[in-house]
Specification:
Enzyme class: oxidoreductase
Catalytic activity: glutaryl-CoA + oxidized [electron-transfer flavoprotein] + 2 H(+) = (2E)-butenoyl-CoA + reduced [electron-transfer flavoprotein] + CO2
EC number: 1.3.8.6
CATH architecture of the largest domain: Up-down Bundle
Largest sheet: 4 strands, antiparallel
Number of strands: 9
CATH class of the largest domain: Mainly Alpha
GO biological process, one term: fatty acid beta-oxidation using acyl-CoA dehydrogenase
CATH topology of the largest domain: Butyryl-CoA Dehydrogenase, subunit A, domain 3
Oligomer: single chain
Cofactor: FAD
């Protein structure tokens, strides 16, 4: 066998392992379109959104125009993109801010996916096209004040009353809740866990916003309160009859987080790399110091490992061989790596690392939520442990 005489391509610090070459032309086009959107529509404003604890409602319409809302679903106005393309979009969105990626993830992978996978044809026709365009916003009500990692212990209940259902309970930490036009609410019934579509304005239903957050500030986080909320049977998701319904939605959202965390890590690494080459101390850029180069090298390793892991899981998902346990490994590894990168980048930037003129402290704070939601790091470690040993450690 003759060795190749072709010279390797130039090394690019922002794509150290040449991962870009592993993507198809269509995947690169989608990635580039989302990257350009984030650069023009998010990055110039997100520091102010974070400081003011707000995110503009019209951003959902612009994301709809970009075709990223429910982009991995088929029909009903959805783009029907591959899982890998959706993952690349999540990476670029979270490189802008976790709150923006959360808006897209909750809309597409939780609320829209729940309707698409478990809803009736009438429910799909009513909601999915409008949600894909960003005209209607959805939220996903599973977590409760006393029921997070153990959703089976939820206290929200729905009881049959003739041809109607009456819902009572409370949900907590619900992204998009206050601005949502429809809430997908999961409740215990006499026949197992069921999902219900609760439109905004339904009597007895309210969604007060949660304030004083120091993380995910460019995102709406809410409580859902259900006080004798009366719904017709047509509001029930007919195909969901157990916890399998909401858990399938969570797995979709966790997959997007695997990619998104890699995006947050990349943004922090790039900020530190650029800063280190222009910050002068002792008459030379700090990038010339061994300790700073070691930090940059360690960040580059984590960013590239995270991106390769996300891409591999994307290929598995497109091939139909991705398991929930794979997603648990991806979320555990990539979010922890992103936290390490953010904290290291903060040190490279010194005092400038705590200001919103740079993205690092914003990502660092956001990732403290990302490591907890959609399954805590501890829970995902136990999922992996169960897969490795065959021994269930949850109970």
């Amino acid at each position: 066998m003759t060795a190749s005489t072709t010279a390797p391509p130039p090394l690019r610090p922002n794509d150290y392992l040449g991962i870009d070459a592993l993507l198809s032309d269509e995947e690169r086009d989608i990635r580039d379109a989302v990257r350009a959107f984030v650069a023009g529509e998010v990055v110039p404003h997100v520091g102010e959104w974070f400081e003011q604890a707000t995110i503009p409602r019209e951003l959902a319409n612009r994301l709809g125009d970009l075709n990223v809302l429910g982009m991995h679903l088929t029909g009903y106005g959805c783009a029907g993109a591959s899982a890998t393309a959706y993952g690349l979009a999540c990476l670029e969105l979270e490189a802008g801010d976790s709150g923006v990626r959360s808006l897209v993830s909750v809309q597409g992978s939780l609320a829209m996916f729940a309707i698409w996978r478990w809803g009736s044809e009438e429910q799909k026709q009513q909601w999915l096209p409008r949600m894909a365009r960003g005209e209607a916003i959805g939220c996903f009500g599973l977590t409760e004040p006393d029921s997070g990692s153990d959703p089976g212990s939820m206290r929200t209940r729905a009881r049959r009353d003739g041809d109607e259902w009456v819902l009572n309970g409370q949900k907590m930490w619900i992204t998009n809740g206050t601005i949502a036009d429809v809430a997908v609410v999961w409740a215990q019934t006499d026949d197992g866990v069921r999902g219900f579509l609760v439109p905004r304005g339904t009597p007895g239903f309210s969604a007060p916003e949660i304030h004083k957050k120091l993380s995910l500030r460019a995102s709406v986080t809410s409580e859902l309160v259900l006080d004798d909320v009366r719904l017709p049977d047509s509001a029930r998701l007919p195909e969901a009859t157990s916890l399998r319904g909401p858990l399938s939605c969570l797995n979709e959202a966790r997959y997007g987080i695997v990619w998104g965390a890699a995006g947050a890590a990349r943004a922090c690494f790039e900020a530190a790399l650029d800063y280190s080459k222009t910050r002068i101390q002792f008459d030379k850029p700090i990038a010339s110091f061994q300790l700073v180069q070691q930090r940059l090298a360690e960040m580059a390793v984590k960013v590239n490992q995270s991106t390769l892991l996300a891409l591999h899981l994307g290929r598995l998902k497109d091939a139909g061989t991705l398991r929930p346990e794979h997603v648990s490994m991806g979320k555990l590894a990539n979010v922890n790596a992103a936290l390490d990168v953010a904290r290291t980048a903060r040190q490279v930037l010194g005092a400038n690392g705590i200001t919103l003129e740079y993205p690092v402290i914003r990502h660092m704070n956001n990732l403290e939520s990302v490591v907890t939601y959609e399954g805590t790091a501890d829970v995902h470690a136990l999922v992996i442990g169960h897969a490795l040993t065959g021994i269930q450690a949850f109970r």
